[in-house]
Amino acid sequence: MNCCSNCFADPEIIAIIDGSKTNGRRIGNCDFCGSRNVIVYEIGKDRTIEELFDGIFDIYSPVSDLPDDFPRIHTDLIKNILFNNWRIFNLKPDGIYRLLTALCAERYAEQPELFDSPVGIRQFNDSAYLEENSILRNNCWDDFAEGIKRKNRFHSNYINLDKLLVFLNCATKLYKKGEVLYRSRICPDECGFKPSNMGPPPENMAKGGRVNPTGISILYLSDSLETTLYEIRAGVYDFVTVGRFKLQKDIKVINLAGINRISPFIGVDKGFDFVQYAINFEPLRMIAQEIAKPLRNDNALDYLPTQYISDFIRSKNYDGIEYISTMRKSGKNLAVFDPKLFRCISTKTYDIKTISYTYDPIV
Questions:
Q1: 140 and 88 within one domain
Q2: C-alpha 355: how far from chain center
Q3: Which tens digit of pLDDT belongs to each residue from 13-32?
Q4: pLDDT tens-digit map of 226-279
Q5: Longest dimension (CA), the chain
Q6: DSSP secondary-structure letter at 66?
Q7: What is the distance between the alpha carbons of residues 88 and 281, in angstroms, rounded to a whole number?
Q8: CB–CB of 204/213 below 8 Å?
Q9: What 3-state DSSP class applies to 115?
Q10: Can you give the pTM of this predicted structure?
Q11: Domain endpoint, select from 58, 90, 120
Q12: Range of 267's domain?
């Protein structure tokens, strides 16, 4: 049987298949996702990918082997866990099950209960382990957020910064000199703004945002003209000036848009293991979600949790933070700590004619 790189989302596995370092390049049809005339990996010819999954299977135990007081919220079938948390596959749970049981046939024959019964990780019931290895220690995101807002704003004991840094260092991204990003401003008339007026507000006028506290001015940019129009929530009949900003030198940023999609197979080299990765699924997901979430009431307190994380990233000498746009599907934003790293090279003013929304019923 053959699988292909289209079955997977994990870059390490994709590199193995497309690089064909293990079994030579061979073109064929995939038996799992249905792709045709692609580079395929012949299951059973070698154990390279199978051995990667051995490490993941080793951390799970069947429910029957877990303590009676083990929290059932942390148990599920392995196919669902891999689909919802690990972000390794591009297949639905049943497809994951078919591929896993074929790819790891020996393990399936030895321990079918790992594949066919609910499983869990013992360390979820070990408070000492969580205290040391979880980004949020023994807390949840709401505990951290309330602690930052109501108890101690600058020296939080709710978050394990050393462990956070391990995962941040796995989510670095390089922007090369000369790259162009965009920033928009709603303007009073069709005359628009000049390039000199397209930067961030001066520090004495800088309001708090998802990345910056009040009084600290940073530059918010987007990957396209369309994304930046959505980000400023431009309305019909608004005049909007869009500036093109050019990067003046190479910079290194933290890609919070992808911090919950780190390949687990780089862990040994990056300072975490499979268990540490698994217990931090939820904190990493919340960080990626909260940094992107639009706030409607502009309550300064609601920005504090992400500002805390952003200040920590800045203290480690990174140049900015990339995060997804929740206002425009597939869009990305970049918050740049030093506005001088980008220069506005041109502007163009637009008259907004229409706004398009898509929607789904919830009942």
A1: no
A2: 28
A3: 999 998 855 455 789 999 99
A4: 999 988 888 888 999 999 999 999 999 999 988 989 999 998 789 999 999 999
A5: 73
A6: S
A7: 13
A8: no
A9: helix
A10: 0.88
A11: 120
A12: 171-351
